[in-house]
Amino acid sequence: MTDYRTPAAKVRGLGASGHASKHWISHRVTAIALFFLAPVFVYMLAMSGAPDPAAARAFFASPMGAIITLLTLTAGLAHMRSGMLEVIEDYIHKPFTKTVLVLANSFFTIGLWLVTAFALLKLAL
Amino acid sequence: MASDWSDPRPMSPHLQVWRWHATMASSILHRATGIANYFGAAAIAIWVILLAFGAEGSIAFLFEGPMAWVTRFALIGLTYAISYHWLNGLRHLVWDFGKGYDPKGSNLRSILIMIGAVIPTALLWLNLGA
């Protein structure tokens, strides 16, 4: 087989996972978002009277409660997805097992994000 | 999987050949708390879903009798995990700027962060208890 591409050209832009620096950067971007959001959300939830159902419902139904929770949820699940992806890629080397876990991680975090966002809107609207 | 390792090149030193030091412990703890936060945040999200559909009665047992203490202990642990991951994550962002790599200072900050994460945890839970 004739292949004129140099070994460097074949791997340029590819990290261990084949996604270049996109994974690295998006993990930092979500980390910076959570630097601001996580303390606000944790403090507001802790002061809301949760886990009492009525107090928790009132918190998630309030505009500030719903907005901060939605923002934290979105940044949090994106950060969780890319963090767990890194853990899977570091420790699981069998291609099939790795693929199954990477898919499960994506489906779980994206699915949980959408269903929880729907639940929050249902509580708030 | 050492059994099917066929690469003749020397392997990178791993956990069992390193002498334990604070920065190493804090790095491992960062990953461990990240995994703990993953499941903790998922549990809170599922609780929000149950609340929205009026199904929170199915997990009411978590807040009753002796089980309430198990739940409380887990939530205190989660608060520490979030606090630690937040503080150490901030250090990771500083590292990304190429600052804070001196071994002595790094070890010191590792210990400060491990202890420091107790402060927000204690403040939140002591206030809740009052």
Q: What is the rounded Rg of chain A?
A: 20 Å
CATH topology of chain B: 3 helical TM bundles of succinate and fumarate reductases
Main sheet record of chain A = none
What is the name of the CATH superfamily of chain B?
A: Fumarate reductase/succinate dehydrogenase, transmembrane subunit
**Mind telling me which CATH architecture of chain A this is?**
Up-down Bundle
CATH superfamily of chain A: Fumarate reductase/succinate dehydrogenase, transmembrane subunit
User: Class by helix and strand content of chain A?
Assistant: mainly alpha
Overall residue-averaged pLDDT value of chain A: 91
Query: Which sequence of SSEs, written as H and E, runs from N to C of chain B?
Result: HHHH
Structural class of chain B: mainly alpha
Given this structure, which CATH class of chain B is correct? Answer: Mainly Alpha
**What coarse outline of chain B follows from CA principal-axis ratios?**
extended
Instruction: Give the CA-CA distance, first to last residue of chain A.
Output: 62 Å
Q: Could you describe the 3D structure shown?
A:
The complex is a heterodimer of chains A (125) and B (130). Chain A has a single domain (20-124), classed as Fumarate reductase/succinate dehydrogenase, transmembrane subunit (3 helical TM bundles of succinate and fumarate reductases), CATH 1.20.1300. Helix content of chain A is 79%, strand content 0%. Chain A is built from five helices and no strands. In chain A, helix 3 packs across helix 5 (95-124). Chain B has helices spanning 22-52, 67-96, 103-116, 118-129. Chain B has one domain: Up-down Bundle (3 helical TM bundles of succinate and fumarate reductases). Chain B has 130 residues and is mainly α. Chains A and B meet through helix 2, helix 3, helix 4 and helix 5 of A and helix 1, helix 2 and helix 4 of B.
